[in-house]
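Researcher: Here's the sequence for the chain we discussed earlier.
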Amino acid sequence: MKQARVIDNSKQLGSSTARSAPDLDRQNLERLREKYENNPNEFFDPKFRRVAERIFDARGTRATPFSGIPTLLTAPYLKLAADTDLSGLQVALTGVPMDLGVTNRAGARFGPRALRNIERIGPYNHVLDCMPLGELKIADIGDVPFQSRFDIKLSHQDIEAHFSRILDAGVKTLAVGGDHSVTHPILRAYGRKEPVAVIHIDAHCDTGGATDANKFHHGGPFRNAVLDGVIDPKRMIQIGIRGAAEYLWEFSKDAGMTVIHAEDIDRMGIDAVIAKAHEVVGNGPVYLSFDVDAIDPAFAPGTGTPEVGGLTTREALAIVRGMKGLNIVGGDVVEVAPEYDATHNTAHVGGQMLFELLSLMVFSPSIGKRTA
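Model: Thanks. This is the structure I predict for it:
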């Protein structure tokens, strides 16, 4: 004889004994309706209101991110001419579209244009709680005017002259490369009076010697800058280093630089890396150079010398944001080569890192002077 099938009606849909959803909090709903439906353009948190007042007009409308002439981080454009007065600026954003120093894949000359075409970067940095375009006087002043597209030595002279002019006007800079060789002449401009400290985030140390009878390539800017006396190697830290070119970088440690390899970051932890950077560079002027190949090519494939095993974008953001409070006087984002990235992810990463560097400048004692 078959046993009777027992059915647990409590598990059936609609059963009176089944667990029911909690009743909707009608009082809270009415409170929200009263507060937000009657004030659709109001921001109640003072922190958010401060940001919104700079973005929305009186009608509650904000500018569309896909219209207008593109500039770096949507900063106002200031055409640089022989008689242009830069003294009203605190930070000048400028492109350096030159990639004559690459040893592998060319194309970083298109980096500045690619970053200008990336929309929706900023304007609010929720982690650092700042809005740099609203707190600093900033402009995109266009690109370095090059005399030649073929001569790298002449191009480096043009870069140094361009940045020297900006610094002589009392303005700090953020640059978009271009290959990493452009950082050498920028540092020559910054270190004319005294050497600066450097935070260098990259897959490669870029302290190699001459290649094919030329020392002005993207694998050697920091060796050149040390030998020129414009950076202090004992106040320089290199973060994210990895790959098969390790044998080229003995100059880094011999000069006294602190090198943190990508695999060290897992062992040390992000907080320890940040603390080490603060210890190394100290309170003096600091230049921050960010090579986009520091990021793993899974996130940023559009670069000349990709190396697997790199930083995630979240790790890179945490490290850069951890430099808040340092005396940041300048920086660059280099090696974005958009031809190798059909998704534009690399340019997006580069644009975000540029925004993070600009955010740091809000808290730099030399520029923004905000302490919190």
